[in-house]
Amino acid sequence: MFHVNTRMLLKGARVLAISAVAATTVAGIAAADDITGAGSSFAAPIYTKWAEQSGAQGGAKLNYQSVGSGAGQTQIINRTVDFGASDAAVSADRLEANHLLQFPTCVGAVVIAVNLPGVDGSKLKLTGDIVADMYMGKIRMWNDKRIKAINPGLKLPALAVAPAYRADSSGTTSIFTDYLGKVSPSFKDTVGVGTSVSWKAGVGAPGNAGVAGAVTNTKGALGYVEYAYATENHMQVAMLSNHNGKFVAPSSASFAAAAAGADYTADPNMAVNMNDTAGDGNWPIVGATYVLLPTNPTDTARSASVMKFFDWSFKNGKPAADQLHYIMLPEKVYDMIRSRWSKVESNGKPVYTAAK
Amino acid sequence: MTATTGSIGLTARPHPREAAFSIALLAAALVVLVTLGAILLILFQAGYQAFARYGIQFIWSGAWDPPRELYGALPAIIGTLSSSFLAILIAWPVGFGIAYFLTEYCPRPLRGPLGVAIELLAAIPSIVYGMWGFFVLAPFMASTVQPWLTETFAFLPPITNADESAGFYWFSAPAVGVGLLTASIVLAIMILPFIAAATRDVLLSTPTLLKDGGYAMGATRWETMTGIVIPAVRGSLFGAVLLGLGRALGETMAVTFVIGNANRVPDSFFAPAASIASVVANEFPDAEQGSIKLAVLFALGFLLFVVSFVVLAFARLLLRQGRMA
Hints:
The structure holds 2 protein chains of 2 kinds.
Chain A: H1 6-23, E1 35-39, H2 44-56, E2 62-65, H3 69-77, E3 83-86, H4 92-97, E4 100-114, E5 125-126, H5 128-135, H6 145-150, E6 162-166, H7 171-183, H8 185-190, E7 203-205, H9 207-217, E8 221-226, H10 227-232, E9 236-237, E10 239-241, E11 247-248, H11 252-260, E12 286-294, H12 300-316, H13 318-324, E13 327-328, H14 331-340, E14 345-346, E15 349-350
Parallel strand pairs in A: 1-2, 1-3, 5-10, 6-7, 6-8
Antiparallel strand pairs in A: 3-12, 4-8, 4-9, 4-12, 4-13, 10-11, 14-15
Chain B: H1 2-11, H2 16-54, E1 64-65, E2 70-71, H3 74-105, H4 108-121, H5 126-152, E3 159-160, E4 167-168, H6 180-204, H7 208-216, H8 221-250, H9 253-258, H10 276-283, H11 292-324
Antiparallel strand pairs in B: 1-2, 3-4
Helix pairs in contact in B: 2-11, 3-6, 3-8, 4-6, 5-6, 6-8, 7-8, 8-11, 10-11
């Protein structure tokens, strides 16, 4: 009866391996030119990759702690790291009060991973409204008539829906709940929108890797994860209907389509919202991930190293981003960020000037 | 403690070194008390903002809504108490069985190795229990144990209030693996070595004369156990359980992995829940200095302290009554 098959254990091991990759660069005491960052686990795969590649070319070594966006904000406000990383944009008041500069680095997508025995999850079609109702406990079975109506070709099992969410405070949760709040007013009213919300149904697991593990372990589960975590764990991800009512599959193309229209000049702190954008091929849950940098650094050399690292990544980071399905920002947005770096000052002088 | 210092004063002649020694002993004892008091005070002070804002209702409010900054401790308190008591219910009979087997039935050469193996359970770090619970036990619970329990106990009528908006549905819930029952089982395994080892020591301290008397009267092993051994050491047996309960109430890492982290009052044995310790562990990284959330987490820490204290004090009271009877 006790059938712990090795495949399941291997899957579990892989889930853990991802979080281990994110933590590999966290090592001992940082040397003088090492830089430290903490926050977003959503962006951890790409930052870790960029650090590996820039390090190989003589760049600063990055110690990045993938502790979640909420913790990233707290840590940079307390100045325990050189930069914070968050997928939830920080409000203008809080940025000003804590002397922080915010800039986006790249765009990633949140996908719905499912575990449905006997059903090809990548053929499953879902709408934002249905997903919202699942997370509110209103749709409890996979053979619910609303799911059946849009999936005539699939044999949906009479299995309980088991939603999984992030137990820790998370930017992925912020992007995901913002999307569900846009398509479902009752979700916004009852569950709310933010890095940590008032869930009405489902189980919480720690970290992107924990949610991936919970979905892999439970029949009938669905969970939201950053796309890189889903692909690394070979999870099945569902199609979603977008703003135009078209069903799209998650792919670099559908993410890029959603990211293309974003206007980074509208908000003084470059915050953008790319959820539920209009366009036939747009993936509906897409978000930028941000870096938070003190404008009054105590250690100017390290602050300069941080900007140098991102400068390098903006120039050379595209192959890694393509590989991990993140979308780079348009070149003129990166130029805008480089000019904004002049706000990071010491004794009235900019700490770092990007070479053109 | 006081009896010891008293006897020193009686037997030893007044001598400066003796006086210094007894003062040193008193200081050692006071360090514990002062530390305990200081922790309690600081927890209350740091959490005061939460009590001031939500009032005493904070303790029995079921709200947990970070976006609107509405917080209540009830789901976490209920999760903590119910997971710990379920764990005791599972671990007590097993622990007693192990201890009785080791002292009465076990062939002598096996006693040592078996005892060590059980004590080794206590040496496993709690994060390992958490990972095992999450990756091995939870899927097994979901695929096998929970469906069986649902079917077997389907006859239990749910307890609901008048409009059925809230209730308790026993074992009728989706089998998702993680949840209250799975957390209790992991906790039970974690506290088992404490209960078994303490119970074994208690049983070994039972006067052999009593047991031999029983056997000489022609009593069976069962009759000796229920009629002679258990009544003789009843109070101390309870103490062994206390040891386990104390550990279960505050366990954090393993519980966070398997309890399901839902800040809702559980409505079945399979429902995901939260314990005070797991809520603090999950939410602490996000709680900014000076924020209401940080105050809420400190207030929760204070409540865990109080809850543990009340439970253990109550258990000690029962223990004392048991001894006097």
